[in-house]
Amino acid sequence: MVYEFKSTDPCDPRDCQIRHPLLAEENFGIKESSSSSHLNGIGLQESALQYEYVNEQVSFNNLDMKLFTAGELEIITRADISEIERKGRLNLLKKITYYSQIYSWKGLLAFYAAWLRKIELGQNKWSDDPSVIELPILTPYVLSKSKFSNSSFKVESKDETIWFCTLYNRNRCTYHGSHQTSIRGVQRTVQHICRVCWKKDRNKLYHPECSSSCPQFPQKKE
Q1: Closest Cα to residue 23, out of 48, 59, 68, 52?
Q2: What's the confidence (pLDDT) of residue 148?
């Protein structure tokens, strides 16, 4: 069963087919598609979670992280989806879990919907990295006090541990936005923030330390 989120805004990234087993067709602008032709041609049947929550009037926009994760795992563990989609959904769910400490939940739902939309339109594949849409979609949703960050350099403070991308600060990173990398044999998610600005003022500024736009550029020591 496939559900389509229909936004009043034609440019809304959520205007896409939302395959989530917790959503009832009558809820909040989500309706069952009359066609069996949809994302990857896979029919989504109602799961046990659907039956449990269908009377709760759960809508896509009202899903919290626990229900969202439970619904995604229902899809991921199905036997009739391809391994490529399974791995792609796991990667997407993992990124959303990491991003939940950086961005608001509303933004992450928009991020999820936008990525499904791109796959539906053939602009991306499940094997692609969803980080490519992080900045355009999630920048307006940055939390004011994030307890999560990323990088191949670690800075500890009272409330948070920050990992920032060393290659980004040298203008050598090939990724767009946050991504994973191996640090001392452990996979970490690293964020594209300025190392110097963070160490000096605890400001998360999205430019490399070698950029002339960095406010610390004249004082920076190699």
Answers
A1: 59
A2: 43
Query: Do both 164 and 125 map to the same domain?
Result: no
User: Is the confidence at residue 66, as pLDDT, over 60?
Assistant: yes
For 105, the domain range is 3-141
Distance CA 133, CA 136 (A): 6
Q: Which residue has the tokens 């979609």?
A: 137
* 105 and 202 co-located in one domain: no
DSSP of the chain, one letter per residue?
--EEE--SSTT-TT-SEE--TT--TTSTTEEE-S-S--GGG------HHHHHHGGGT--GGG--HHHHHHHHHHHHT-TTS-HHHHHHHHHHHHHHHHHTTTB-HHHHHHHHHHHHHHHHTTSS-TTS-GGGGHHHHHGGGB-SS-SB---SEEEE-SS-EEEE-HHHHTT---SSSSEEEEETTEEEEEB---HHHHHHH----SS-TT-TT-TTGGG---
pLDDT given for residue 60 in this prediction: 77
Q: Which of 119, 141, 163 is the last residue of a domain?
A: 141
Supply the pLDDT for residue 92. Answer: 94
Given 110, 141, 172, the domain boundary residue is 141
b/e for 136-150, b at 16 or more Cβ within 10 A?
Answer: ebbeebeeeebebbb
148: in domain: no
What is the pTM (predicted TM-score) of this model? 0.49
